[in-house]
TrEMBL record:
GO terms for molecular function: aminoacyl-tRNA deacylase activity. This is YbaK/aminoacyl-tRNA synthetase-associated domain-containing protein. Residues 60-165 form the YbaK/aminoacyl-tRNA synthetase-associated domain. It comes from the Bacteria.
Length: 185
């Protein structure tokens, strides 16, 4: 199938290529519930060495920068309690960790989670973390600008490959909370 965005050779419905995904992502696709059918989550094969956003858009289409979202793992602390969460923001913005995230998590301090925590807790590769298939008890904070996109490009759980999905599907992810101003310039 021709992908709806980007210069990719083809797009494959994610349910038809579960073996290309990490276990948590494949499980999430397999058990997908919501108004957007799982078949509208598409997988595109990409080269792992081009996974970082700037290099990626050079190879797969400059217009992808405005249609891509980054998923980052954050840690909020209050007293002795730590809460892990994921944040999904447009690639052209950065996560407002010390404002929107900290307040939403009710944390005294919020920061980006260390790489080994992010990969160990998600079962995904660094540079490929996706909002699809995150631990069920995590809040998934989604910037409203991501939800407004017709199609959004996100990680696949690995550095190889990406997922394309309707922006509105991001609001249907388990634990999703749509927030205005999560991504800032």
């Amino acid at each position: 199938m021709q992908p709806p965005i980007g210069d990719f050779d083809q797009a494959i419905p994610a349910p038809d290529c579960l073996d290309a995904l990490t276990r948590p992502v494949a499980d999430a696709v397999r058990h997908w519930r919501g108004g957007v059918p799982a078949e509208q989550i598409l997988y595109v094969d990409t080269e792992p060495e081009w996974a970082d956003t700037a290099t990626f858009v050079e190879h797969y289409g400059r217009g992808l920068l405005e249609q891509s979202a980054n998923c980052v793992v954050v840690s909020g602390r209050r007293g002795g309690d730590t809460t892990l969460a994921a944040c999904l923001v447009l690639s052209t913005t950065r996560v407002d960790v010390n404002g929107v995230v900290r307040r939403h998590l009710g944390a005294r301090k919020a920061s980006f989670a260390p790489m080994d925590t992010a990969t160990g807790e998600t079962g995904m590769e660094y540079g490929g973390i996706t909002p699809v298939g995150l631990p069920a008890d995590w809040p998934v904070l989604v910037d409203s600008a991501v939800v407004d996109l017709p199609w959004v490009l996100v990680g696949s759980g690995r550095r190889r490959g990406k997922l394309l999905l309707p922006g509105k599907a991001c609001a249907e992810l388990p634990g999703a909370v749509v927030l205005d101003g999560l991504g800032v310039a």
